[in-house]
């Protein structure tokens, strides 16, 4: 790719769509560092969601066996034809990945990694789709807004800790591997970003995921209320029963949901399974 991305976008007459959260990575060192952080190599298959102008796609393609990139904006097709020219291991699918049947997709692929600069407006649903439904995903390494990154990787009893943090803990360990200033994007967004890596296979062991999910939902259904109150409301049980279950799990009677670790949620879910 001889010309820089800004020139190619201009020559293709591309117009940015604010509602799609289009902020493309232009810094080559950043692109390389994201792929390195993902830990992918020559034998790996990568799924990219929201490939944009294809700058990260091309960097991935230079290092892995195959890249399947999803992009919702079909007006980027002439741009991608130029930025990805000469590559024979890359496929671009112009579809909304949120509407993709993941089970059907996984029938046609082996184990894969997800590496992406996620569109900000769909970050949470995309991550939860992969966390809850993906069976062949080996790991994620994604760029997200910094404030979202803090929530994804938060510890119990901190302000950023929430339901999504506890749900991620079911499948993976999550860590921020790189902070990214807004100046490295084109056009420049109003917020800074961070690269978050999810290592699958390091999650909390539970016998029933649905039961765990329901307990987490109950715990965070009203953050101002105690866990006991939320259990009474969600499960329709007596206050005495809720208090007894908490005592059996060694959880203080007036504890709030955000103070519980994923391991405590797992223990609690066993009682309500």
Shape: elongated
Record field, number of beta strands: 9
Beta content comes to 15-25%
Q: Which regions have little confidence, pLDDT < 50, spanning 5+ residues? A: none
> Helical element count?
12
Order of helices and strands: HEHEHEHEHEHEHHEEEHHHH
Helix content: 25-40%
Strand order of the largest sheet: 4-3-2-5-6-9-7
Summarize the biggest pleated sheet.
7 strands, mixed
Instruction: Return Rg in Å.
Output: 21 Å
Give me the secondary-structure category: alpha/beta
Q: How far apart are the termini?
A: 55 Å
Summed over residues and divided by their number, the pLDDT gives a mean of 94
Q: Can you describe what's shown?
A:
By secondary structure, the protein is α/β, with parallel strands linked by helices. 38% of the residues lie in helices and 18% in strands. The protein is built from 12 helices and 9 strands. The strands form 2 sheets. The protein has a 7-stranded mixed β-sheet with strand order 4-3-2-5-6-9-7, sandwiched between helices. A two-stranded antiparallel ribbon has the order 1-8. Strand 5 (112-117), helix 6 and strand 6 (137-145) form a beta-alpha-beta unit. Helix 10 packs across helix 11 (239-248). The protein is elongated, with a radius of gyration of 21 Å. The termini are far apart.
Tags for this model:
273 residues; alpha/beta; 7-stranded mixed beta sheet; two-stranded antiparallel ribbon; 38% helix; elongated
Question: Would you summarize the structure shown here?
Answer:
This protein is an alpha/beta fold.
């Amino acid at each position: 790719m001889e010309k820089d991305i800004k020139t190619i976008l201009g020559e293709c007459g591309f117009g940015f769509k604010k509602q799609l959260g289009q902020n493309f990575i232009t810094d080559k060192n950043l692109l390389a560092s994201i792929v390195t952080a993902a830990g992918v190599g020559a034998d790996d298959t990568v799924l990219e969601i929201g490939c944009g102008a294809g700058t990260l796609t091309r960097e991935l393609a230079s290092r892995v066996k195959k890249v399947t990139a999803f992009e919702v904006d079909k007006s980027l097709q002439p741009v991608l034809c130029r930025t990805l020219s000469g590559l024979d291991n890359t496929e671009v699918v112009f579809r909304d990945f949120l509407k993709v049947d993941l089970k059907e997709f996984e029938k046609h692929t082996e184990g894969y990694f997800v590496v992406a600069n996620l569109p900000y407006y769909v970050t949470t649903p995309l991550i939860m789709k992969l966390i809850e439904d993906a069976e062949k995903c080996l790991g994620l390494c994604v760029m997200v807004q910094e404030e979202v990154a803090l929530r994804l990787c938060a510890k119990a009893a901190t302000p950023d800790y929430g339901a999504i943090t506890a749900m991620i803990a079911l499948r993976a360990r999550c860590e921020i591997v790189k902070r990214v200033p807004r100046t490295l994007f084109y056009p420049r967004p109003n917020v800074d970003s961070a690269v978050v890596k999810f290592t699958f296979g390091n999650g909390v062991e539970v016998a029933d995921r649905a039961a765990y999910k329901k307990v987490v939902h109950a715990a965070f259904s009203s953050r101002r209320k105690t866990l006991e109150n939320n259990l009474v409301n969600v499960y329709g049980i007596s206050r005495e029963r809720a208090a007894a279950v908490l005592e059996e799990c060694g959880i203080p009677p007036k504890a709030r949901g955000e103070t519980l670790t994923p391991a405590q949620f797992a223990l609690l879910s066993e009682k309500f399974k």
